[in-house]
Amino acid sequence: MSDSTVDVTKKHHSFGRKLKYGIGFSLLIVLIIGGMYWKKVSNKPKEEYSQWSKPVPVRIVPVQRNNLDVEIKAIGTVIPVHTVNVQSQVSGVLQRVHFKEGQWVRKGQLLAQIDPAPFIVALAQAEGTRQQNLAQLQNAENELSRYQLLFKQDSIAKQQVEQQQALVNQLKGQIQSNRAQVDAAKLQLSYSKIYSPIEGRVGFKQKDVGNLIQANESTALVTITQVHPIYVQFAIAENHLAGLRETIKSGQQVKVSAWDKAEQQQLAVGHVQALDNQIDVSTGTLKLKATFDNRDDRLFPNQFVNVRLNAQTIQNAVSIPSDAVQHGAKGTYVYIINKDHKAEIRSLKLGLSSNGQIEVLAGLDGTEKVVLEGIDRLSDGKEVQIISDEQKHRPVTESATG
């Protein structure tokens, strides 16, 4: 190998080493600069931002101070004022039925006819016996008159007169008994016609024409219910008893309204008729009976209805919506909004509730505003943003430039 070739090779290796060292040095410079930049960036203070740090949007309602009508809700059963099971008082064949099932009948209206033939015969027999005894009595009285005349003439003994007088008295007693037998036969004959004892609506008949009816049997011929007026029976908790009794003692009628099962339609309006004489110890409730005119037949016997009872009126009561009340370890409380637009906790002592409103006995004076919605994000001293009903229901629109 020539010397020139060796020199070229040495130069080539020397250039390669210099190039490698240059690249490594450049990478080292880049790493140093990058590290310094990262340190600078990482040490820069971060901007504090959190959705929870913003004021909490809430909806508020003012505390009310007015008369609070305490309304009690219960489940009631419609019951007739009178229910009569019509039965025959005599035995016989059912001859005719004078009503239609479900028909409205008046008091004293003829409902059915039992075959009267046996009772007509019994009446005739009783009257015949009475006439026979009347004839014997008349003859005995005539004999007594003759005996008394003969006794005055001293023609017969006094004993004969007394015996004849006794016979007359005996026949008079028989006549009185005969009269009672005739009246009994007439009464039995009258029982062959069955009349309605009350005004009301008849149900389904239980006996068809041609059947033998037994007197006072367990199965009634038909049932009649009086529904004008009509009762609704229900029960309330015993803690409402004191206020209810005070209202009744004051002479006021306690209003009661009956609603359908869905509580969407009011069926009738009435008033409390009577309170039971004792509390049911097993349930802690008191039974009440309310009366309704029911001329439109909206209430039907044995129907279940929802009852709303206006038990009492609390004058000048401080009240708030029941949904605003919170329950915690320290008792019941609400959030109010102070003048700095911050939430503040107020502990409460509560009274009776009605129609979504609850009476506040202590804790509020009636001038505050309580939080109704947005409570889950609130805490004592938290700043709030009050949302009006218009803002709450305002539709959200997209920005045209967004």
Automatic annotation (TrEMBL):
Domain YknX-like C-terminal permuted SH3-like: 318-386
Subcellular location, record wording: Cell membrane
InterPro entries xrefs: MdtA-like_b-barrel (IPR058626), MdtA-like_BSH (IPR058625), MdtA-like_HH (IPR058624), RND_pump_MFP (IPR006143), YknX-like_C (IPR058637)
UniProt keyword list: Cell inner membrane, Cell membrane, Coiled coil, Membrane, Transmembrane, Transmembrane helix
MF terms in GO: efflux transmembrane transporter activity
Domain Multidrug resistance protein MdtA-like barrel-sandwich hybrid positions: 83-225
Transmembrane spans: 21-38
Family per similarity comment: Belongs to the membrane fusion protein (MFP) (TC 8.A.1) family.
Record protein name field: Efflux RND transporter periplasmic adaptor subunit
Top-level taxonomy: Bacteria, Pseudomonadati, Pseudomonadota, Gammaproteobacteria, Moraxellales
